[in-house]
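Hi R.,

Here are the chain sequences for the assembly we discussed:
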Amino acid sequence: MIESRHESVIVRRLSRRLIPLVQIFALYILFFGQYNPGGGFVGGVMLGTSLILGILVFGPTDPLTVVTKRIAETDGVGLMIFAAVGGLCLIGGGQFLNYAELEIPGLAAPSRRSLGIILTQIGVAVDIAVTAVSIVFSLSVMSGNGDSHG
Amino acid sequence: MTYSFELPLLILLILTAGGAIVVKDLLSSVLILGSYSFFLALVWAWLGAVDVAFVEAVVGAGLATVFFVITLFGIDPRDTLIRRTPPPIAAVVSLLLLGLLLLYAANDLAAFGDSASPASTHVSPFYLENSLADTRTPNVVTAILMDYRALDTLMETVVIFTAGLVCWLLLRRDAK
Amino acid sequence: MSDHLPILVFLIPFLAAICMPLVGLNNPGRCRPLALTALGGMFLLSVVTLWRILSQGEIRYAFSGWAPPTGIEWVADEIAGIMVLVLSALAFLSLLHTRQDASAELAGRTVPYHAIVLTLVSGLTGIVYSGDLFNIFVFLEIAALSGYALVGVSGGRALVSAFRYLIMGSLGASFYLLGVSYFYAATGTLNMADLAQLVPDLLASKAVIGGLSFMFIGLGIKMALMPLHGWLPDAYTDAPDAVSPLLAALVTKVALLAWIRILYWVLAAGSYGMIIEIFGLLWVVGAFASVGGAVLALTQQDLKRRFAYGGLAHIGLILVGVGQGTQAGVTGGLFYLINDAVMQCLLFIMAGAIGWRYGVRTLDDLGRTRLPTPWIITGFVVAALSMIGLPPTGGFFGKWYIVLSAIENENYVAVVAVVLTTVLTMAYFMQVLEPMLRDGETGPRSPEIETPLQLRLSAGVLSVAIIGLGLWSDRIVQVLLHATSRLGL
Amino acid sequence: MVELVQGWLLRPNFIAFVILFLWGLYITVTHHNLLKKLIGLYLVQTSVIFFLVTTSAKDGATVPILMSGETAIQPDAYVNPLPHVLTLTAIVVQVATLGVSLALVAGIYRKYGSLDEDEVLKKLK
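And here is the predicted structure of the full complex:
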């Protein structure tokens, strides 16, 4: 179903408007996860599904799909962010993922932890968004370009 | 605790679950499963688990349904016909035993909503009391998820990452 | 820095796995060297870790700086140290022995393949180290997802096997999670050390007994314990030759290790047999699995399938030892577990090698074909000796300790089961070795160079390791005894 | 015995969990259609998560998001957040498993042209 764009012009127009809104809401959910329900997972899944909507509606030639396809190849970047934050804690002298040991001058331990939570949530969101898109690409490689003889 | 709001939800939950199982058309049954997830999210919101409800609504009712539907569209199954055969005796018997074990084990669980239960008194008060001071994060669930038990979160992200790789490995043979 | 060793050991394959998609984006050829380097580095670091554990005692690592039970804790004791060492070595060798043209078979899928091998290794490492029940669940799922993918990688029939594996494995994980939930509901904690403090007072609680039963069912599926083994033979037979050594050696053993930890570390239970009687019968399940597995192995034509059933028997043997409830029994079971990992790895490497090299997949093929390859025959013989349990090998000493502990318990049924399994194992290996050795003597020998260097290296190292495990068995058992002495058995 | 049954009936959540768990398990093990098996598996996984969430409930407690400016925090005023965290993780694991299983189903369908387990097994031979 990725092979062509959606035939209805209403769906295409509406999605063009809707996708940025969904993404802004996803970012809101992501960054206010410390104060509201939500956070990395939900934000990431919403980002991912907004991109999936774009793929399904605009078809394979649309710039959005092309960009998304490039993004889907960079699987693992989100985890690198997460692991890098954890690794910085190791370098700072604490245990793995001990954000209180992040070496940021002028910040007390609770603020460092708060910062660590935001950074790692970004990592989670990026990874989940990218992977969701990647799984959808894989699952839709069925007819045509996939091999049919196993 | 009164169940007046929850009972209808639970009944709807079981009805939608049954619908997803019984309905013959695969696409319909997948969509009914989406509504099952949605009712589940409502039940959890009622239980006070707003974060879980949110994730279930987005992941269960959203992403899981997207995966199901894309698979169904991609493979366009011709045999959505579902046969029914008499249930194997062994499966029924072991299921009954399992059910008895579940009910037996439930006897010594704390009563529902008991704020003096071990689950609510041993470790969890620490999180509630200290998370704001420790992490400046009012949402205690986020604080535990991303800080106190951050390793679990890292690893579940790895689970998702692995799933992405697995789908790639199994389905995309024409990679450059 | 030496307190951080467990997490460093874990981070090497983990980081390599998550970097793999980017590294392989433009040049997939880099994946195999990266994976091999990571596993090699992991091996070296795990040697250092084991040395550190042996010299200065166990390492308890509290993640995020939160002391348990608030945070997640990893416990690197002697057993975990040895197990991770074995795990990384076996993963390195099974990846190394894969021939170079495996990349052609993988058809542009080298990137996810190598990344998934590494996630499998990281998942297993996590299970071994983790001291937190829920953390184990997450790692179990990482390892399981990787396992499903590796089974299904060659497509076709393997996909069906992988699907069955997935259904069973996910049900197992759900049961395990259910057990953890019952434990949590009854105690309010997930940390093993903390549970060990709380559970003895609750041993009469039905919730704890139920939770334990569900965990046992769940991990029983994961370790392919006899009545729950349905997924294993197909999965190991249909997995590509490059993968089945890794799976056969590690996946079930690590699940079994997790169960041993729960049984003895969580229940704090020298006395568990007396309090929860039903788990005093664990050795019966083990004896049933060991005899049943060996009998079923005897009836199989396909070599890999035959060895897969043989592996089931060995899981049962380990449980016979562990189920004795004495220090000698647990130690013997753990020692046999380590041996079993090594010899299963060698056995499946050899089975894969003759399958690839000579197209020998079944006993009939074996009778028809000459195998003029001393390396392969030697490897087979060493693995077979150890599987049967003959003196110079590690397998003998593992069985020896298990039988000793059973005799000490005056548990003669268990002794009979072990002996019966040994006899059956000998029978099914004779059917394999007899045509192989007969033709090896009469047939002309072709130059050894035909066996690839990596294969010879893997086979040689593993054979030496099996003999070495036998020769130094007393040293290893001393270390294990030291670890199990803290259990208060 | 009467008290036992009464005890179970006082926990409608638990009854719902048991029904969903057993029904899902039964479908997963016995159904012929691969996709229906996955639906059964989904029910099993969600029901276990449901059970875990239920352990977090406290009478008269509210969602575990602390009010701003509150100084002395009463743990009894908020539901237990730890099971929520575990279930979040479990849900993500569940959807990852679903993705993998759908990939396998898609592969099987591509190869054998059927979602019926018996038919696939017939074609295997």
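Helices of chain B lie at 6-22, 26-46, 50-75, 89-106, 118-121, 124-135, 140-148, 150-171. Residues 11 and 39 of chain B are 10 Å apart (CA to CA).

Let me know if anything looks off.

Best,
T.
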